[in-house]
Amino acid sequence: MKDYYSTLGVPREGTIDDIKKAYRKKALECHPDRNPGDAKAEAQFKEVSEAYEVLSDENRRRIYDQYGEDGLKNAGGMGGGFPGGGGFSSMDEALRTFMGAFGGGGGPFESFFGGHPEEMGSARRGASKQVNLSIRFEEAARGMDKEITIMNLLPCKSCNGTGAKTKNGIKSCPTCQGKGQVFQNRGFFSMVTACPQCHGAGQLITDPCKACGGEGRVKDRQNITIRIPPGIDSGMSMKMDGYGEAGLAGGPPGDLFVNITVEPHSTFHRQGDDVVLEYPVSFIEATLGCRKDMPTPLGETVKIIIPEGTQSGKTLRLSGKGIPNVHGNGRGDLLIKIIVETPVRLNEKQKALLKSFQELETEQNNPNRKSFLDKLKGLFS
Ligand SMILES: [Zn+2]
Ligand SMILES: [Zn+2]
C-alpha cells in the first residue's frame, strides 16, 4: 500500500504549498539528470512524481484520502492520467510532472545546477566514464597514490567551455525558449522530448569557437592521481567525482569509475581482509618445534613459535596481521598454514640414523596412526 503523504514527507493536513515545496525538494534530489544510471533514484523519482501528481490535484487528493490508491484506479478516465491504472510506469510521465511542477520562468535546472541564469536551462551533465585499473597485491594492501592517463572530453580552454568564439556568439534557442525540451502531444498524454532545433542544448551558437567546433569540449589526455585506500580488493570500484566528461553549456562534469583488479601474489592468498600463507617446515622442525620470522602482507616481520609436535596442515592465526579493512575497520588476520615437508634424497648415513630412530619408536609417537589401526581391527573382527 503506497502512502503518498509519507513518500513526500508531508502531513495529511498539509497545504498545497507544503506539497509543492516537498515535491520540488525531493524531485531535485533524485532527478535522473543528477543521478545518471542510478535505478534506485529513478524509481524514487517516479514515486515522488506520482505522489505529487495525485496530491497536487484537489479532486484526486480527496478521492485518495477517502478510498486510497484503489479509488483512484477506479476513477479512471482522462483525468486519471495513469496509463494501465497503476502508478507511473514511464519516465516521460514523471518528467512531465516534474516540468509542470516547476512551471515557466527559468525552468527547473536553474535551482538544480546553480550558477548564472543565462547559462541555465541548457546545462547538461557530462557522461560518466569507467576505467579498469590493475594493481599489485602489495599496492592494494598498503594503499598508494597511482597516476593514470586517460583520454577524456575536457572543457575547451579557448572558449572556457561555452562553445562560442565571443560572448555574443550564443543565443537562447527560440523554439524551446532555452529549456532544451519541448512538449509534444501524443494522444491524451503530452511528452517531454529534446528540442528538435537545439537538440536539447537550449542555446544556439551563432559564432562557434574554432578550437572545439562549438561543443565547448575537446578530446585530450588527462593525468589523474587516484588515491587508492589500503585494503582495496578486486571487484571494487572507486568513484572519482567530477573526473568524467565535461558538461555541456555550463553543466557539471560526469564522474569517473575506477574498477580495480588486484593481481594475485605468489605466496600470500587473500580471503577478504584475512591472508593465508602456506609455510613449509622440515619434519624435524615440526617434531621438535622451532622459531620463525614470518613476513606479513604489509612487509613487517613477526616472530612466531611453531610448537613441538605441529602436524602438517595446522593453521596458526596471527591476529591483526592481515590486510587493513578498506572501510577503516581494523585489520584482518594472517593465517599461517604449516606444511611439513618429507625429506628426500637422503644419504646412507641419514637413512641409518632414521632406521635406528624407527627401532626406538613407540605407539605413543604416532597416536593418529594407532587409533586408525585400532578402528580397522574392530571393523573385521
Ligand atoms: Zn531548443
Ligand atoms: Zn572552444
**Which fold does the CATH topology of the largest domain refer to?**
Chaperone, DNAj Protein, Chain A
Which CATH-level-2 architecture of the largest domain? Ribbon
Please estimate the helix content.
25-40%
Uncertain segments:
76-86, 103-121
Major pleated sheet: 4 strands, mixed
Sheet/helix structural class:
alpha+beta
How far from one another are the termini?
Answer: 71 Å
Approximately what portion of the residues adopt beta-strand conformation? 25-35%
Question: What overall form do the CA principal axes indicate?
Answer: elongated
Q: Please report the first level of CATH classification, the CATH class of the largest domain.
A: Mainly Beta
Bound ligands? zinc ion
What do you see in this structure?
This protein has 381 residues and is α+β, with helices and mostly antiparallel strands. It folds into three domains: 4-103, Orthogonal Bundle (Helix Hairpins); 129-262, Ribbon (Chaperone, DNAj Protein, Chain A), CATH 2.10.230.10; 268-380, HSP40/DNAj peptide-binding domain (Sandwich), CATH 2.60.260.20. Helices cover 30% and strands 25% of the residues. It is built from eleven helices and 15 strands. The protein is elongated, with a radius of gyration of 34 Å. The N and C termini lie far apart (71 Å). One zinc ion is lined by residues 156, 158-159, 163, 209, 211-212, 216. One zinc ion binds at residues 156, 158-159, 163, 209, 211-212, 216.
